[in-house]
Amino acid sequence: MRIDATEIAARKAFLELTETDANCLRAIREQLAGAQHGFADGFYAYLRQLPELAALLPDAATVARLKQAHGRYFDSLIEGEYGEDYVAERLRVGMTHARIGLTPKWYVGAFRKYLSDMLRATWRATGGEAEAFMPAFDALLKVVMLDLGLTLDTYIHADKRAIALRDRAIESSVNGVFIATAAPPDYRLIYANAALSHILGSAPGAMIGKPCLCTSAEDGFAVIREAIAEGRNGYTTLSRLRADRSRQWIELFLAPVRSDTGSVSHYVGVLNDVTARKDAEAQLAFLAHYDTLTGLPNRSLFDDRLAQALARAERGEDFALCFVDLDRFKLINDSLGHGAGDAVLVEVARRMAAVCRSADTLARLAGDEFVILVEGAGSAERAAAIARRVLAALAPPVVAQGRDIDVAASLGIALCPVDGADADTLLRNADAAMYAAKAAGRNTVRFYDEAMNRRASQRLALETDLRRAVARDQLVLVYQPQLVAADGSLAGVEALLRWQHPERGTVSPLDFIPIAEEVGIIAELGEWALGEAARQMVDWRRRGIDVPRVAVNLSARQFHDADLAERIEAILAEAGASAEWIELEITETAAMAHPSDAAQALERLRDKGLQIAMDDFGTGHSSLATLCKLPLNVLKLDRGFVHHLPDSDTDAAVADAVVTLACRLGLSVVAEGVETEAQRQFLADTGCDVLQGFLFARPLSAAALEAWLAARGGSSSPSPALGCASVKVEQHGQKISAPS
Ligand SMILES: Nc1nc2c(ncn2[C@@H]2O[C@@H]3COP(=O)(O)O[C@H]4[C@@H](O)[C@H](n5cnc6c(=O)[nH]c(N)nc65)O[C@@H]4COP(=O)(O)O[C@H]3[C@H]2O)c(=O)[nH]1
């Protein structure tokens, strides 16, 4: 704080403090010198009687320091110099008093005591003469009043500074702060800081004088008025719609401001925009209960709803659980990638949700597994109706990544309480019913029955055992000879998997390959089979047993593995086998699912030197145009077409067509399932290159095959039992001449 010379002059003029007064005090200076010492002790003793002032004089050292300051002040008071330095010093002292908390009332009171003591000293200094005393008294009074005015100014200044600081602090706060009158019904706003305008998106000052935070009828902030009106002091969370209709969440701390009489005169509110936090909380809550991909309830929320349904079932309200599993979804995922898989799941979820009622819970449990909880009267019939509607809804192909993808589902229904009265049993039984639907040819619905439970538990046991089969050395390969139709010499063998189960005996691949595909261990099994076949070929070569080639089956899932060619190459390298010894059999259905991808995958395999055979040919509806584009070496005529030969004209026509087609495309034909001499004769005559079937040999262990070959008089020797087709045939892409 500063007071300039003009202001000092003005104050002095008003007090009539003139040079005459200064001279008057200067005149008695000598007589007064040291007078203060006489009354300083009494002055401080007096001050210390009052606890509040005694607290400011805590020890003797402080009092001694103050007495010295006191002496300096006394000297300056009677020095007669009341210019800018004098004023600045008085202001400094005044500011110190304000800072240490010496309030004006005590300061003025103490000044009174000081003045009384000084007047007595002046009276003595003027020799008790009224004429001499009065001018000195008058001069002293004027200087003291000048001082008092300055001191009061410092208090006011200090207060103003504190208030300004508070204002700046509130203005700088990131919290919105407002003060509203406590006058209902409007509770008008009398103060709002900048943050409040910012949070509420209104122009600064625009809200002042308006009904409390309710700038328009629909801005939603009437709720704050309500909070005040309801006396909801403390913490409240409010929400309102912004102008763009988005929801804003606000946390409000409201407190009444009381007047001196104790009545509530105002309300002070501090508010924060907590929309981001609320959104994050909502997101977390959503993540905890909903599946992020499809937006459907997740397992956790489903478990909750199921528990509630079970509780209601105890009071007699039945319900149904409908398990939904997409058919061959893994194939979509593996062949088209996860992007397409996700798109299918989203679309499937959307279609299923459209056929459920809002009262039913459709949840995604995992991967391609969904469940529908159907509650209310007639839940069994309604579950069946919903299941049928789900199948119908999934019938049109799903378009993902520009392709039409056919989806279908198998559905299993279990009823509460008939099929189970607890969550585990119901889920297990709905699952078993779903598996029964799959077994019944997929894309269908099954209700649960007891027998299913037995089958399901058997299957589960099989699944568990199968996972351990490789590690426990329970898998073996058997080899079925493939003979050149023209001369019966050995064209190669097909390696076929067998599972030697410790209790069940030999399990057919027809029973365990689908399970391995579903539980995701087919790649492991397939790679084991390829490695084993390769090792066997190396062993035969080393021992001079001439098996020209081994055909190994590749499952659809393996086939769609992006790094299949590299994996196969690594397996062969590890076994020390040459790629030319290996023929890979892929089914027509797997190849035709996505022909252009298949063409690329097969190209890479062929580049590595492998032969490619299309298995079960004739069952997968290949289009000729597509077939031409696939880099194949062999077509395997499905044994379904062989079985009724030569009597069935249709099958005879098919066999003939396949041979003609293969010939045109430069492929050789292997006919499988040859059981009779008549079939052999027919196929050989038709021009099949290679024949495979029980007529020649069943699938044999490696040792049995060696014995079989030895019995024929050498591995590749023409079989004396075989007739020779008098045609030139192509053996696995390589022309050979039939012996005459
Ligand atoms: N009725 C009859 N059947 C005959 C005749 N000659 C051969 N068979 C059988 O026909 C099946 C030929 O194999 P596939 O078509 O590749 O069909 C195979 C193949 O798709 C699959 N499989 C076998 N081993 C593997 C493997 O290592 N990996 C994969 N992914 N699948 C395999 O299991 C299927 C069945 O294999 P298997 O039970 O060994 O059945 C074999 C074989 O035993 C015959 O004259 N009459």
Automatic annotation (TrEMBL):
Q: Which GO terms describe its biological process?
A: cellular response to nitric oxide
Q: Supply the SUPFAM superfamilies for this chain.
A: EAL domain-like (SSF141868), Globin-like (SSF46458), Nucleotide cyclase (SSF55073), PYP-like sensor domain (PAS domain) (SSF55785)
Cite the GGDEF domain residue spans from the record.
317-450
GO MF entry, a single one: oxygen binding
Q: Where is the PAC domain?
A: 232-286
Q: Which residues form the EAL domain?
A: 459-713
Which catalytic reaction applies to this protein? Answer: 3',3'-c-di-GMP + H2O = 5'-phosphoguanylyl(3'->5')guanosine + H(+)
Q: Which organism is it from?
A: Denitromonas halophila
PANTHER family according to UniProt: BIOFILM ARCHITECTURE MAINTENANCE PROTEIN MBAA, DIGUANYLATE CYCLASE DGCP
| Taxonomy, superkingdom | Bacteria
Lineage, broadest ranks: Bacteria, Pseudomonadati, Pseudomonadota, Betaproteobacteria, Rhodocyclales
Task: Kindly provide the name given to this protein in its UniProt entry.
Answer: Diguanylate cyclase DosC
